[in-house]
Amino acid sequence: MSYRISLIPGDGIGPEVTDAARLCIDTLGIDIRWDIVLAGEPALKQHNSLLPSETLNSIKKNKVALKGPITTPVGSGFRSINVALRQELDLYACVRPARYIEGTNSKHPGTDIIIVRENSEDLYAGVEFKELDEKTNGLINYINGISEKKVRIPSAISIKPISSFASERIIRFAFELAKREKRRKVSCIHKANIMKYTDGLFLQIFREIAKGYPQIEVNDVIVDNLCMQLVLRPHEFDVLVLPNLYGDIISDLCAGLIGGLGIAPGANIGETTALFEPVHGAAPKYTGKNKVNPTATILSAALMLKHIGEHKKADILEKAVAAVIKKGKNVTYDLKPTRTDPGSVGTKEMAEAIVEEIKKELKNG
Ligand code: NAD
Question: How far apart are the first and last CA of the chain?
Fold first, then answer.
């Protein structure tokens, strides 16, 4: 079987970690032709567009993509290209497994949580209005006219849309995933005590859909309480389904539970297309330093292999990663007992150690 897959190297540490993942996949002997396409700053420089149609068309045609992180300027400048890609391709489900790997610095051995984050709406919709803008003041006047609660003028406004359509779609996705993966419990995460109409709708739909899955245990947890419970008792959680913003924040918290962003993979799934990328960002301070952990991207590639049906090769890849981390020798700084450990290796060297383990697995098996 041969495949054609789009590859977006991204920026910051993106090219280094995607190179590492490609090296591992190529060692597995799968016939993949990579279409290398750009997005973000590198695309702006080369194609004068942050998200060129060539990139979108390549992913639409291939239906599968592997992606490195892309920088988003903070506070001003262009909007996130990562969010734009998910919206343009309607990759509505963000799936992020946080599974303990022996040999990491995790304080919570045995953690095994799957985050299912809604990817298309909520405060990530990008519907925002600037402070001191005439349109914003007009909008505030309109709101103050129809709402009992008043908004101060001047203010900046972000809109949080939550629809029945998107909530139903992601919650059903979470239950189907739980059923398929034989997971015991799905928890709905919300702040419906405060946001009665938006998070309240999400929770109401969760309760309705849960009735169709009597074999799966369910509960709902307010997001701030979840943060505390996750840190104290992560083993009580299994599959979490959340609106977009909470999903983003809880993903990093869960990455912390298993030993850091360096080992947290992710997938963005739509009806026809899927894009795989690590939870972490572009970590600009480490750009070009051959320093960061390639595991999160390599494990995202393993999720991609499962998605295209290459389960055996995905297992080999996951085992190879686990073997290198367990041995603890050829690992990056974040997997050593201290971050300044002189024995840590670079991104490339860790990937090469994983390649050696892949070769051993292939030989034995
Ligand atoms: P970040 O995830 O890039 O980095 C935060 C810290 O986590 C780093 O300083 C580093 O200490 C650690 N870290 C991250 N990746 C690591 C790895 N592979 N190995 C070891 N340690 C690692 O978060 P940030 O600094 O908040 O964001 C930097 C940029 O990335 C921003 O522009 C942000 O918008 C963007 N971002 C992109 C994505 C994406 O492309 N999907 C996701 C998150 C953030």
Answer: 19
